[in-house]
Amino acid sequence: MRTTNAQRFRHRPVIGIIACGRMVEGEPAQAVKHRYLEAVEKHADAVPLIVPSNQDVGRAAELVSRLDAVMLTGSNSNIAPHHYGSTRVGQAPIDDGRDGFSQALVHAAITAAKPVFGICRGLQEINVALGGTLRDLRESDQGDAHHAPAGASLEEMFGFGHEIAVNAGGMLRRIVDGDRVDVNSVHFQAIDRLAEGLVVNATGPNGVIEAISANHTPAPVFAVQWHPEWRPEERAHDLAFWHYLSEAARARYMPAPGSELSA
């Protein structure tokens, strides 16, 4: 069958993926792990575009204007507590540049009615950007329930997980099959106070919030605490995350049941 020009040049949404600050060969660099880029390209059928986080926050709106959606990835760095009004000393590693610019991206995307999706650190960044706070699970001896032991291999780290309870009526329940699913768990920070305007979609051990959404924004704001980019072919609910991102980036927004946008 011959491929037509329309098929060959069909529009694929552009997803801006925030980068992390890293030291490479002794100098500052920006980095995104391939698995995020590959998941966007393969499972969301979109074009991944790396967004550097070493930008002035005043440029966030200009960057967002060129994107169809924003993706905030996971990272090994922790969000510095001063960003959510805490006087605690954050545990290294810290990526202060990403902390500040991610907040600007969230606000710029919501203002521009562009979808915002978050994974792990990205969920935490969305909560902080909208006025919520975080806690470090290691300070209450709950870290072992949500992260593999130190020294674990990459396979062991992402093989570590637990079951989560999916709340009825939330966006996550609309895109996954079942009210309980098994997810990987690779984090130490977690939501403490949920930001106003966000809704809990799922919870895990120790009451940790595992998924959130906003149902009064002009475009979707949705995030999960686990890592759906890690071999999503093996789990239907992780594929559902990427399919939802794909739909949202194509402006087929499904507001949560009961929200003012679904009335």
TrEMBL record:
Q: List, in alphabetical order, the Gene Ontology terms for molecular function in this entry.
A: gamma-glutamyl-gamma-aminobutyrate hydrolase activity; transferase activity
- Transferase listed as a keyword: yes
Which positions, given as ranges, span the membrane?
none
Keywords, alphabetical: Glutamine amidotransferase, Transferase
Pfam families given in the database record: Peptidase_C26
Instruction: Specify the domain of life of the species encoding this protein.
Output: Bacteria
GO cellular component terms, alphabetically, are: cytosol
Gene3D superfamilies given in the database record: 3.40.50.880
GO biological process annotations for this chain's record? Answer: polyamine catabolic process
Q: Please give the name of this protein.
A: Putative glutamine amidotransferase
For this protein, the record's InterPro entries field holds: Class_I_gatase-like, Peptidase_C26, PuuD-like
Question: Which SUPFAM superfamilies does the entry mention?
Answer: Class I glutamine amidotransferase-like
